[in-house]
Amino acid sequence: MVRTSLIYCAIIPAALSLAALCAMAGFADKPPVISPYTDRLKKIASSYDSEQFKRDYKADGPSIRCFSTPDHPFYIGIEQALRIHAPLARVDATIADISGYSRIFDGMKHSGALAVSENRFLTSFEHYIPLPFIPNVKSSILYEVFRPSADRRIYRYQLLESNSLTQDDGFIWLEETTGTQGEKEVLFAQFDFFDASWGIAKALAPRKIWNDSVRGLDQSDIALQLKSENPDWPDEKVLEESKKVADEHDYEKEIKNRGPLQLEPSASAP
Questions:
Q1: Which tens digit of pLDDT belongs to each residue from 114-135?
Q2: Which pTM value belongs to this model?
Q3: What is the rounded distance in angstroms from the CA atom of residue 112 to the CA atom of residue 189?
Q4: Domain locations in the chain?
Q5: How far apart are CA 1 and CA 141, in angstroms?
Q6: How confident is the model at residue 133, as a pLDDT?
Q7: Range 28-34 contact pairs with CB under 8 angstroms and sequence separation of 24 or more
Q8: Which residues contact 60 (CB under 8 A, 6 or more apart)?
Q9: Average pLDDT of 213-233?
């Protein structure tokens, strides 16, 4: 998902650049970057359910939890829970429309996808860096879609290559339920763990790295929510309204109270 904090990791230029989307087929056999959270996230994604969602979701504000990584203060870990008032098919289609992300995610210049199989596709993202002589942040991420039941979807994603990100590991979990008035709605949860070459930002703007990372995930998830709930809205309105909602949120408490996500014994901190 979009990360406005990537402006800071781009302060140190990198020589690596991604090929154009039409050449992304070369990544089809490239293994994703394994993170310290890979095994644990697989297990959480497969066991996450509506009961866990109820524990994570808050109706009176942003349902966000932040996770720390021991000895790595800028390894970002975030969980976001949302209740989307739209049927699963519409939410599923909104998330799968990767090329549309650049029109509704703040700071994203380009987004595209290339299907490898029915349930597996490669994505290409470019985030605009509004600084002179600083290259835009580019990344390629592998997505896999799992359908454990007719009313559930899991989007599992992992980093393949980037000029700034060093790791990106996470998933989006969806479950369709029936609301109090008989309408269809979707429970949405996302776990996202990533690290980057933050450069001098670690010394100059350490608090903004976390705050802007959380704000970036919040805005992008709200955009997906608004797009799903209001399919007739133009993308410009989805972008502006989601930015307004995110800008009203204060993430200081969530960031301050972050703690480690319990890892499996076989995993270790980076």
A1: 887 889 999 999 998 766 666 8
A2: 0.88
A3: 23
A4: 6-14+35-260
A5: 10
A6: 64
A7: 28/116, 28/122, 30/160, 30/161, 32/142, 32/158, 32/159, 32/160, 33/158, 33/159, 33/160, 33/166, 33/167, 33/168, 33/169, 34/158
A8: none
A9: 97
Which CATH superfamily is 6-14+35-260 part of?
Answer: START domain (3.30.530.20)
Q: Nearest to residue 153, comparing CAs of 90, 220, 238?
A: 90
HSE-CB at 63 with a 13 A cutoff on CA atoms is 21
Measured CA distances, 177 to 56, 186, 251, 257 (Å): 16, 6, 28, 31
Cα separation of 12 and 6, whole Å? 11
Q: Dihedral of CA 94/97/101/104: which sign?
A: negative
Is 111:220 a contact under the CB 8 Å cutoff? Answer: no
CA distance 177 to 270: 38
Are 104 and 235 a contacting pair, CB within 8 Å? Answer: yes
Q: Which of 219, 240, 238, 220 is nearest to 230 (CA)?
A: 238
Q: Give the mean model confidence (pLDDT) for residues 185-210.
A: 88
What are the tens digits of pLDDT across the range 44-103?
999 999 999 999 998 877 799 999 999 999 999 999 999 999 999 999 999 999 999 999
CA dist 39 and 264 (Å) reads: 7
Report d(CA 252, CA 210) in Å as an integer. 9
Beta bridge partners of 141: 123, 159
pLDDT of residue 13: 33
Q: Are strands 259-260 and 63-69 parallel, antiparallel or unpaired?
A: parallel
